[in-house]
Specification:
Blueprint: H1 2-37, H2 41-46, H3 56-61, H4 66-98, H5 103-115, H6 121-134, H7 141-165, H8 169-177, H9 182-193, H10 195-211, H11 214-218, H12 228-233, H13 243-263, H14 265-274
Helix pairs in contact: 1-13, 4-7, 4-10, 5-7, 7-10, 8-9, 10-14
């Protein structure tokens, strides 16, 4: 018996050491990025490790106002994409999970939702460029919201479908017997029960929209029309790289997401497990 306890402790220790190594590997680049953001370019290039805690990089990236506008563009893209995906994804997920649509509608919808994320985004750039140009949304935040919603909506729909499938069917049936409409059941009963799923889906979609780069690069003219990710890439010039400003811009873009993930950890876990048990 004592031997088994010792073996379990040894295996537990090995797992803890492995997890610690993984955490260090993940956290170290982020810490290094933040440290570089407080160093002048000369200190970074010359490897002068005297740490002056210099704020000049942050002043430089916000100096002309372009980076701040790009941040606002990214915030607008995230909010718009999340709103579109949550509204349409929730309705579609509920319909697929609980309304028993005919197979001729369900099978193509699920197939399309599975295929769209597998298509390389670069192959869709010419078509999306022409489409946005024809409807007058090329180079706009609204256009990027539309494009990001196109890529994230299948994921949001399938995710919400799994959450609605985990809600007991008897709740819907009881509400319908009591005289509630289908819309009333959806809004008053189903949505409150899948709030962890809504939170998790919003966070995942928001992170994907915040990190999107290719469409922001190809469907805007850069500068004040571009999102944050394109603005960060702009610090890599042809003949020089402003490492300090690049690190500062990266820190500004990454740290808020890290803080969000830390504080929303419980919601993410609850959302991931909400649809695990089907009613």
């Amino acid at each position: 018996m004592t031997g088994r306890i010792r073996a379990k402790r040894r295996s537990s220790l090995v797992v803890e050491i492995a997890l610690l190594i993984v955490v260090i590997i993940v956290v170290l680049p982020i810490v290094w990025l933040v440290l570089l953001s407080f160093l002048p370019n000369r200190a970074i290039v010359s490897r002068d490790w005297i740490f002056p805690f210099w704020l000049g990089n942050f002043r430089a990236i916000f100096d002309d106002g372009t980076f701040a506008v790009q941040m606002l563009n990214s915030v607008g893209i995230v909010l718009g994409t999340v709103a579109v995906c949550i509204v349409i994804g929730s309705i579609s997920g509920y319909a697929l999970a609980r309304l028993s649509p005919p197979k001729w509608a369900t099978i193509p919808t699920l197939a399309l939702a599975a295929i769209v994320p597998l298509v390389p985004p670069a192959t869709l750039v010419p078509g999306l460029y022409e489409l946005l140009n024809d409807i007058g949304l090329l180079g706009s935040v609204s256009g990027l919201i539309l494009v990001n919603s196109l890529f994230n909506l299948p994921f949001a729909t399938l995710l919400m479908m799994s959450y609605f499938s985990g809600v007991p069917m008897q709740l819907r049936e009881a509400a319908l017997v009591d005289g509630a409409t289908e819309a009333g059941v959806f809004v008053r009963i189903m949505l409150p029960l899948v709030r962890p799923g809504l939170a998790a889906t919003s966070i995942f979609v928001g992170i994907m929209a915040w990190n999107e780069f290719l469409m922001g690069l190809t469907l805007t003219s850069g500068g004040p029309t571009a999102p944050l990710t394109v603005g960060i890439a702009g610090f890599v010039q042809e003949f020089a790289v402003t490492w300090g400003e690049l690190a500062a811009a990266g820190a500004v873009a990454a740290v808020p997401l890290i803080v969000l993930a830390v504080f929303a950890n419980k919601q993410i876990i609850a959302g991931l497990t909400a649809g695990a048990v089907k009613g």
